[in-house]
Structure formats: C-alpha cells, structure tokens
C-alpha cells in the first residue's frame, strides 16, 4: 500500500505567484502570477512560452536553486499561492536538512548549464564530482563504470572522458551537462532548454533516454523546451505561459491547434509554417 507522500504529486503549484524584489531604482517585478499545475510521479510536463514569460523563473523556484543564490537579494521569491516539491512547501525558508534532501532528489539543468562546466576538470572528473562530494570513498571501479554508462546514454563516445570542456563543441558540452544532472539518479529533473545546440541524432538519443528513465525509473520532469519533437514524444502535457500567466495546459498538438489565445494561435501558425 502506498503512503500518502507517495500518492501526492511530485511537483505541485497552486495559484503560484513569484516576484523579483525591488532593487535600487527597479521596482518589484511579478514574473509569474496565479499559475496552477501538478507533475505526478513518472510524468514529464513540458513548458513553453515567449522570452520573459516566466519559464526560467519557474524552473529556478521549483528546483530550490533560488534558496542558495549568489545574490539572495535579487533572487525570485514565492509571494502568493504555494509550490510543493515532494510535499514540502517551498514558500519561505525550507529547513536546512530538508533542503539538502530535496536538492539531492532533484536535478536542475539551467539554460546556461553547458557554460557552467568547470574548465579545469576533465569530463570524467565533472561527472564523478557529484558522487565524490557525497562519498569520497566511493569505489573507483564502480564509479568509472557508472560515469562511462551515463556518458554513453547521452550519445558521447568514451574517448571524451579525458577531454576538457574547451575541447568540446557547444552541443557536446550540453550533453555532458545533461549527463552530470542525471549522474546521481534523481527522482525529478527540472531542465531549461536541454536540447539547445545538440544535433538531431543526439536529440533523438536524449528523447529515448528521458522516455526510458520515465518508464523504468519513474523519473518525473519539468522540461522547458521549444523542441516540438521532444514535447510530442516525451511529455504527456505541456504548460503554456504568456507574460507570467497560464494560457494553456494540454498535450502539445492540442495546444498548437488552440486559437483561444493570441500566443497559442501564433505558436500553432509558426509550427505549421515550419518556423517554430
């Protein structure tokens, strides 16, 4: 019999409002207003929206990344409604021990993840680091096999294990960033434009990897993307944001055929014309 915590959504937002605090001459900015949705265990929810629609802010807030930013004064804050991650309210300060647990179970892939890879480490060291930070005595043979397996899963040859980020193309760096996000076997993945810069064949491999993790490991995910192949083949539903508000929540093809909102109408017209 499943416990109450196992039955509740992995991610949930109810009438969620997120704001950036006033800073200097800039007034408080509301980035997300009144948004509600859930992500169930084993579900991948897509997110689409124009630049400035609140997509990246949503990802940051739900990942708990905003709790330990470089500059806390400029970090987005939940100012209305609520968001829950594994049943834990994210509004206000999350207890330190619980926050560490949430961050262990949640992988966050920001939009600039490929640029954040540490330049002084090889690919092997980059993928090993999250594991060794938690257990410095982790068996090196097992670690090596695991790192090679996760690199292969993102369609990169083993020969790149000894390479440094500057020796890789932008698409290869993105694949390493994805592998690093998945190396600890997270329960939930929050990814901001994960297929950016990746070639078509490698994108298909990534789609297959996400489907496998969803079906076999019950991975849940919130994926911001304008990769319509990913949205069609990996997500069950897609949330559409426009100027911080929710304008649609359905499967991608239903949204593309929706003419009830100007953004959705334009999105569908662009996709039909092959320019989306």
From TrEMBL:
Alphabetized UniProt keyword annotations: ATP-binding, Nucleotide-binding, Transport
InterPro entries: AAA+_ATPase, ABC_transp_ATP-bind, ABC_transporter-like_ATP-bd, ABC_transporter-like_CS, P-loop_NTPase
Any Pfam family matching the protein: ABC_tran
Domain ABC transporter: 11-268
Single GO molecular function: ATP binding
SMART domains, alphabetized: AAA
Gene3D superfamilies, per the entry: P-loop containing nucleotide triphosphate hydrolases
Similarity section: Belongs to the ABC transporter superfamily.
Official protein name in the record: ATP-binding cassette domain-containing protein
Organism field: Paramicrobacterium chengjingii
Source lineage: Bacteria, Bacillati, Actinomycetota, Actinomycetes, Micrococcales
